[in-house]
Automatic annotation (TrEMBL):
Record's keyword annotation contains Signal: yes
Organism from which the protein derives: Paenibacillus vortex V453
Key words of the record: Signal
Name of the protein: Copper amine oxidase domain protein
Signal peptide: 1-24
InterPro entries per UniProt: Cu_amine_oxidase-like_N, Mao_N_sf
Length: 131
């Protein structure tokens, strides 16, 4: 019984040691990023939810409209561009719709949405850092 308690305690300490630094640093781990044609795509909702961005989906047109304060960004599936307040912003990979989730290029999020986002190839996760 004593060995079991020690084993459980050791496992709990191991998990807590891994969780605390992530929470303390203020970094957000974004799960389910994908690598397609050497470009990292991340789910737009994963970023938008924690940044206070309003996202509206138009099923008929297959477009997502993001509102960040006074800025309105429109993304269309299979296009390599966004409209940012009606100005065209091109990027190097198309917006993808995969299993009812809209994925956007990581670089677009970093440059257009004002978030510092980095891809960790080893863990296959992206991390958003406070700006």
């Amino acid at each position: 019984m004593k060995k079991l308690l020690i084993s459980i305690s050791t496992v709990m300490i191991f998990f807590l040691a891994n969780v605390i630094p992530t929470q303390a640093s203020g970094n957000e781990v974004i799960e389910h990023g994908i690598l397609k044609n050497n470009r990292v795509l991340i789910p737009i909702r994963a970023v938008s939810q924690n940044m206070g961005i309003d996202v509206k989906w138009n099923q008929f047109q297959k477009t997502a409209q993001l509102t960040i304060g006074e800025t309105v960004i429109t993304l269309a599936v299979q296009f390599k561009r966004a409209l940012v307040n009606q100005d065209r912003d091109d990027f190097d990979a198309p917006v993808e719709l995969i299993q009812n989730t809209t994925y956007v290029p990581l670089r677009f999020v970093s440059q257009t949405m004002g978030a510092e986002v980095k891809w960790d190839q080893k863990t296959k996760r992206s991390h958003r850092y406070p700006g």
